[in-house]
Amino acid sequence: MGPVPVCVLLSAALCVLSVVRSVSAEDEDEDYTWPQWRMPLLREKRTVRLTNPAFSAPAQAERHGTCGIECQQGLPDPSVSELERLLSYETVYENGTRTLTTIALQGLNEAEAWPRNAPGRTRQKREVYGVDTRFTIADKQYSTKYPFSTSVKVSTGCSGVLVSPKHVLTAAHCVHDGRDYLSGTQKLRVGVLKLRSRRRGKGRGRGGKGRKKKGQEEDTDNDNDNDIEGDRGEAEEGKGGKGGRRKGRKGRNRSRRSADSGPPSFRWTTVKQTHVPKGWFKGESQNVSSDYDYAILELKRSQKTRFMDLGIIPSVKKLPAGRIHFSGFDDDRPDQLVYRFCSVSEESNDLLYQYCDAKPGSSGSGIYIRLKEAGKKRWKRKIIGVFSGHQWVDVNGVQQDYNVAVRITPLKFAQICHWVHGDSGICKAT
């Protein structure tokens, strides 16, 4: 065989390099794409009426004795019957009555591919870690715009996130202490930040134009920024930084003609019914009650504010950025929406341990990340957990403090889907 021309060798090398780049791009794209999951089915077996709760529990401060990563790794895998017991739930209604619904799980073997995470190291930190990195979303044009507009205030002193026009996801301890419902739960309400209108009869009512509001609700997640950390820019704009002034005075003046010069106010809606998993109740679970620190509030009136979908991610730490985001109403900044983002330090099957700066009042906030939709190039934010708050965690017999969030797993996703839609079958894939 004679010598091979240099041009042929160069062409082959370029071809190989092109293939390598193509594969690398595909792998990187998969890292940034929402994974597809087969969901288990959750069916109702029986609903019985219980005695009315006393509504006598005080609001909780800090919780102690949470089973940490090392502790949970020593626990046996729950059986199907035990999972069905823990995922059965109570519903309390606005008239003070309550019921217990038992459930059955189907397709669990096909859906269960939840990874086991390795034990993490311990740390000794507080609710705010060193320099306070929280952003106050002071500009009303941003506090009432997606994604910040999905955050709501719960009348018991917590936060929550809209997951449908009529449903709010929050922490279970915001309505129940494990033994009884909180004293403020009987008249539970949810507040949504709204801009006040000067011309209430024109353009903002049901019969008015309302084009701006409609446009905000139909906003897409395909922001101008093309990376997973795009929320940082939104936070700067929300603070009233330069990014929020580039639109020019003319555009800003137009947008404020129908809005009050004061800050947004809460528009309160009564909660029609509240769902809490039995796994949260004392005596129902062994050392894992914190894994079930979530609840769904069904509102009496639908909201026109855009909501955020739920998502499932097997590992946050393995994401290219490894960051989570959430907004809530921290107690030390009354009636101010507070946003933060941070890296996840450790994760177990059901909990996320992180360094996010937070104060009481932010409990119940929706933890979200932003990834690409499968088969599409646009970004989409989804809620992957609920911020539970500051907890003292049992780590090898020693109490360590963490800020903890409850993860959305396939089973929890199916349960929440059942609460919201009445049928978990429509949520077989995400």
Automatic annotation (TrEMBL):
SUPFAM superfamilies: Trypsin-like serine proteases
InterPro entries in the cross-refs: Glutamyl_endopeptidase, Peptidase_S1_PA, Peptidase_S1_PA_chymotrypsin, Trypsin_dom, TRYPSIN_HIS
Sequence ranges of Basic and acidic residues compositional bias: 229-240
Subcellular location: Secreted
Region (Disordered): 192-271
Composition bias, Basic residues: 195-214, 242-256
Cellular component annotations (GO), alphabetically ordered: extracellular region
Signal sequence region: 1-25
PROSITE patterns per the UniProt record, alphabetical: TRYPSIN_HIS
Pfam families: Trypsin
Keyword set, alphabetical order: Glycoprotein, Secreted, Serine protease homolog, Signal
Regions of compositional bias (Acidic residues) in chain numbering: 218-228
Span of domain Peptidase S1: 141-220
Chief location: secreted
Record-linked Gene3D superfamilies: Trypsin-like serine proteases
Similarity section: Belongs to the peptidase S1 family.
The protein's name: Inactive serine protease 35
Species per Swiss-Prot/TrEMBL record: Coilia grayii
